[in-house]
TrEMBL record:
Function: Catalyzes the synthesis of activated sulfate.
Keywords of this entry: ATP-binding, Kinase, Nucleotide-binding, Phosphoprotein, Transferase
Highest taxon above the source species: Bacteria
Enzyme Commission numbers on file: 2.7.1.25
A cellular-component GO term for this protein: cytoplasm
Catalytic reaction(s) noted: adenosine 5'-phosphosulfate + ATP = 3'-phosphoadenylyl sulfate + ADP + H(+)
Domain APS kinase: 7-157
SUPFAM superfamilies to which the protein is assigned, alphabetical: P-loop containing nucleoside triphosphate hydrolases
CDD domains, per database record: APSK
Protein name (record): Adenylyl-sulfate kinase
GO aspect biological process, one term: hydrogen sulfide biosynthetic process
Similarity annotation: Belongs to the APS kinase family.
Molecular function (Gene Ontology), one example: ATP binding
UniProt gene name: cysC
Amino acid sequence: MSVTETGATIWLTGLPSAGKTTIAYELAGRLRTEGHKVEVLDGDEIREFLSAGLGFSREDRHTNVARIGFVAELLAANGVKVLVPVIAPFADSREAVRKRHAAESTTYLEVHVATPVEVCSVRDVKGLYAKQAAGEISGLTGVDDPYEAPESPDLRIESHQQTVQESAAALHALLTERGLA
């Protein structure tokens, strides 16, 4: 690894159980094997440690995304490939993170893990869709709370139509094309 390695933030947005985190960790392993400095900013871990106390109102979600974006940009500016598997349901929040990166001349890529809600609800990794259907929770992104899909992401991954490895390979190909891998 060279000391002049170019960092970047790669934000994977999509519905709960779309496959964002699984793809991020698969890609992280490959990048580390190649000698890159990599961090995964997992949304659940961030909520536990950096954004504890925030709820799921639009304002709290925006604050959470802004905090993650700040940390991601800081790491990326220091040569780290930062994989961010975080829903970030609102386009304006994601755009604010993009603008912050642009202002600092730090690479930012937006990846839409475009898995249909029907597939996500079957996967239901954390049981959120079942809890929402049972009336135990409300405000589930993409079901009874909005999700604004990116209009022109740098990459759209249809994770329900390919394996995790194929999804990570598509993302790796984008990084290679952009001179980041």
